[in-house]
Sequence to fold (355 residues):
Amino acid sequence: MDKKEIVLSGIRATGNLHLGNYFGALSKFVRMQEDYDSMYFIADLHALTTNPDPQQLHCNVKNIIAEYLAAGLDPEKSTLFVQSDVPEVSELYLLLNMHVGIGELMRTASFKDKARKQLGIKTDNDNDGEIEKEIIGSDSNKRVNAGLLTYPTLMAVDILIQKAHKVPVGKDQEQHLELTRRFARRFNSFYGVELFPEPTNFDFGGAPIKVPGLDGSGKMGKSEGNCIYLIDDEKTLRKKVMRAVTDEGPKVPNQPVSQPVQNLFTLMELTSAPDVVQHFRDAYADCSIRYGDLKKQLAEDILKITLPIRERILEIQNDDAYMGRVVRLGAEKARERASKTLREAREIMGIRKFY
Ligand code: TYM
Fold:
């Protein structure tokens, strides 16, 4: 058991899980728990960076526990816990921040993106100067909280405190992982130690994925309003897929595929059998495709994956006693490793007792 590599990942408690979370993260968690020493958690502290309603945050945590279990995470095989149940994380977050540069945090894509939204800056071209001016400008009542800036430090600590080797995440989290490796290297070399391993993403040999949304634009995301949720009922899900953005259809054979239609093909590649995908690709190439048929098939194939999960979510979500047992046990295990690493880090940094 001890020789197995450690896998760790988490999902923010910001709402129900969607197909992006499922294919980018959760489905990999389930597969990896068979072969690794696996730890998966619910990132409630990270959710605080966008100042959620307290009652809603609490509900989100419980919903995600139910969704983890319903998707196949097994408390006998994985350690499942809530981030805030491991207070050691918060202390190491303070310690590690002493080695993190404000500049490198401000240059992180996710920070710039969220800061732009909070400040109401519309454009997404490279307006870093404008963001900095707005952030520092004291006469503004708009505010970007410091927790948002140090989000990557907290994520690095989640990973480093468990000394994880592999971190299954979607493509959008790669920059955060790169920062985690940098912080680990920096700490190790500053103190001349080998405390933290450098973690890598993991995708069963494939490239990390970005699941697209149904609105023809970029990625599926909770704040984009373009999601299919694991908890969606049959009718809602079919309606969403049938309303997905497409185009006027190919006019000449082998015409390049537009972004909205490519998005549907990408979803299909994740959910349908290869011969089904090929059938629709061929129909697109010879201009005989009917998007209505493609959408019907896509909805069918997504439902095959999500409906059984939905049924289990409904069974589990009201069983507070069961969910409570699972995360209490998970927190105990997570704290064991975390407190050992924290002790080591304190000692290395010179936070020692003389009495
Ligand atoms: P969060 O909640 O934004 O996303 C959770 C996981 O879902 C993946 N994901 C996607 N993958 C592919 N396509 C999409 N459209 C899509 N949308 C979401 C994300 O890549 C992620 O893997 N910072 C993390 C939470 C976290 C964490 C950690 C992860 C906190 N500490 C330590 C790993 C290790 C996050 O933003 O999750």
Notes: The radius of gyration is 22 Å.
